[in-house]
Design a protein that fits this description.
The protein is an alpha/beta fold. Helices cover 45% and strands 10% of the residues. Strands 3, 4, 5, 6, 7, 8, 9, 10 and 11 form a 9-stranded mixed β-sheet that branches. Strand 10 and strand 11 form a beta hairpin. The chain is globular. Belongs to the histidine acid phosphatase family. Keywords: Hydrolase, Signal. It catalyses: 3-O-[beta-D-GlcA-(1->3)-beta-D-Gal-(1->3)-beta-D-Gal-(1->4)-beta-D-2-O-P-Xyl]-L-seryl-[protein] + H2O = 3-O-(beta-D-GlcA-(1->3)-beta-D-Gal-(1->3)-beta-D-Gal-(1->4)-beta-D-Xyl)-L-seryl-[protein] + phosphate; a phosphate monoester + H2O = an alcohol + phosphate. Pfam families: His_Phos_2. This is 2-phosphoxylose phosphatase 1.
Length: 629
């Protein structure tokens, strides 16, 4: 009898194990996870990138007996944040929920101890980050502050820093990874946003044990001295037009986006799938129930009459034009005329004038929490939308409310494929009691995944990315050359945004959806190497190091992508077989590319697709009427 009981237990155990590998996972005698739930969870993992899913990959995976690490350059996107636009009930979202983590508690204690007698040293001195908070907001009126880093985002960046320390500290030496400014071995750049600054400090602490002396990057693109470029505005308008046409060509999806926006947003409808995605992530990434719409309120006659008068005035007095070419005095006069002649909403008008005046009053100090240049671009973009859509100056108020939000021109690409096989028609609902369901989220994300795949092949998007990323890649190459010639810096960090990495990825020639879909706390690492035996040759022959002696590799979110760079052909690369650092039974290939390839790329070949040889000429060709691209 006991033999039969043992046999039955064995069979049941084996059945349960097989069941876990099938479409429905058995987790209890009467509870199953459906395939839809699994798909929704995959969206959560890919888009939110929770800290427990961030693991080391092929960082530093080279033959260390043959190759010596000279230095690393790390680019990151900030961690999880609050939404960029005002949401209905958004102040109730649990963005401030603190994960249970000893690592997070240790960092918070470090910051508290450093601030015990005043401001921490990294925010006490003069400069753009003076008096910046080092931790996300707590106990504020809103639990989910617009665009602000969350405790979960802080933990993500601490986890990334741990990976960097584990992979590189012993190879470079802990003292060479210092970012405090006391040594010249480490350099840290960040944009003037709290979320990128706080992300940098968290990464610095977990990778080096200390804080970072941050240098300001004056643009989300980290363009340094190569920022002014009129072609960027032209290309952005082309991409924006393509985005609208693409969504319009899928009316069912467009209707879904409109429905979702009515549920999500407080002040206006966004017919923009990317903006809706960002709002949905505020719920998905913080484990909040998906929202339902409140009953719609009918517009009063006064508002309808006002909108008609605005359209009538625009048709008579304001023909369509490029607002970027209009001087600010003309804009002010037109705004005054609207207020005086059409009885326009004076509060809105005052806010618009306040923003315009602030941008052009050089005596006033730029706001502390965001880049003034990006604020100007946001303002001009929304003013252009006013001219295009006759929606009045209400959009300028949105800029006023979202001053800490990432500036974002919508992206688009060719419509050469379709996503319909992944799309599921949402069930029609009464608009007064419409609730967002998981099926709606999966449909919207399926559309966006298809859209991203088009974007990486879009000629306008790739050219815009080349222009945006030129200054950053030029700075990366300069630091690589310093690592070769001066043996410093050893550790360079750029704490940026999804748009930073998207432009860089396309400029480097990466074309995969998995690359372009930037998660929170994404990381890209450039590793610079030389052969170990060259040390003796330099010592005894007095020969100086040259570029041909050095190689580099690129690791993106743990994946070696060196062999996929447009300027690193496989026949020139060094191919190595390495053992996985976790499972020593796994062996895989990694690559090293000659460093002279990226030097030649940035100096000789970068603007080949523009048929010019330098940044200035590339930026000017779109202003040339003979140019028909």
């Amino acid at each position: 009898m006991s033999v039969w009981i043992f046999f039955l237990i064995t069979v049941v155990y084996k059945y349960i194990s097989v069941g876990e590998e099938t479409g429905a996972v058995k987790i209890a005698p009467s509870e199953y996870i459906s395939k839809a739930d699994i798909k929704f969870k995959n969206i959560y993992i890919k888009a939110c990138n929770p800290a427990d899913s961030i693991v080391r990959g092929s960082e530093a995976a080279v033959d260390s007996d043959t190759w010596l690490l000279q230095g690393i350059l790390v680019l990151t996107r900030h961690g999880d944040r609050g939404p960029l636009n005002h949401l209905k009930g958004g102040d109730k979202l649990p963005c401030d929920t603190e994960p249970i983590s000893g690592l997070l508690r240790s960092y918070e204690e470090f910051v508290m101890n450093a601030s015990a007698t005043g401001r921490a040293w990294w925010v006490s001195g003069p400069g753009p980050f003076h008096n910046f908070p080092s931790l996300p907001p707590r106990g504020a009126a809103t639990k989910c502050a617009l665009g602000q880093l969350t405790p979960s985002g802080l933990l993500q960046m601490l986890t990334v820093g741990n990976i960097l320390r584990e992979a590189y500290s012993d190879k470079l030496g802990p003292e060479n990874m210092d970012l405090s400014g006391k040594r010249d071995s480490g350099v840290a750049y960040t944009t003037r946003y709290r979320r990128t600054f706080q992300s940098l400090q968290a990464l610095a602490w977990s990778s080096t044990g200390g804080a970072a002396l941050a240098r300001e990057a004056h643009s989300v693109a980290f363009c340094f001295r190569e920022c002014a470029c009129s072609a960027l505005h032209v290309l952005a308008r082309k991409i924006n037009s393509q985005l609208k046409n693409r969504l319009d060509s899928h009316p069912t999806m467009r209707d879904l986006i409109i429905k979702l926006s009515k549920v999500l947003f407080e002040s206006q409808e966004y017919i923009d799938a990317e903006v809706v995605r960002d709002a949905l992530l505020a719920y998905i990434c913080h484990d909040a129930p998906l929202p339902c719409i409140e009953k719609r309120k009918a517009y009063g006659k006064d508002k309808l009459s006002l909108n008609r008068r605005q359209r009538k005035y625009r048709g008579q007095h304001m023909p369509s034009r490029n607002l970027l070419e209009v001087d600010i005095d003309t804009l002010n006069m037109e705004l005054d005329y609207i207020n005086n002649q059409l009885d326009f909403n004076n509060e809105v008008g005052r806010k618009a004038r306040d923003i315009i005046g602030k941008l052009y009053d050089k005596d006033k100090r730029a706001p502390l929490d965001f880049d003034a240049q990006m604020e100007r671009e946001k303002l001009l973009y929304y003013q252009q939308r006013y001219l295009d859509n006759a929606e009045g100056y209400e959009d300028v108020v949105i800029v006023k409310k979202n001053l800490d939000a990432d500036f974002n021109f919508p992206n688009d690409a060719r419509m050469d494929t379709d996503f319909d096989e992944d799309y599921r028609e949402p069930t029609p609902e009464n608009i007064e009691d419409f609730c967002i369901q998981k099926e709606h989220v999966m449909s919207a994300f399926a559309y966006l995944e298809w859209s991203y795949k088009q974007e990486v092949r879009n000629l306008h998007n790739r050219r815009r990315s080349l222009l945006l990323a030129y200054g950053l890649i030029h700075n990366i190459v300069q630091n690589m050359i310093r690592m070769i010639s001066e043996n410093k810096p050893k550790y360079v960090v750029y704490s940026g945004h999804d748009k930073t990495l998207q432009a860089l990825i396309l400029a480097l020639g990466l074309t995969g959806y998995r690359h372009y879909n930037i998660q929170y706390a994404s990381r890209m690492v450039f590793e610079v190497y030389r052969k170990r035996d060259l040390r003796d040759e330099f010592k005894f022959t007095k020969r100086k190091a040259i570029a041909q002696d050095f190689y580099f590799r690129v690791v993106y979110n743990g994946e070696d992508v060196t062999n996929e760079l447009s300027f690193c052909s496989s026949r020139q690369n060094v191919v190595m077989k390495v053992v996985d650092h976790v499972d020593d039974t796994k062996i895989y290939e990694t690559y090293l590319c000659p460093i002279e390839n990226i030097v030649r790329f940035i100096h000789d070949d970068y603007f080949t697709s523009f048929n010019v040889t330098n940044f200035k000429d590339a930026c000017s060709i779109y202003g040339n009427p003979k140019h028909t691209i």
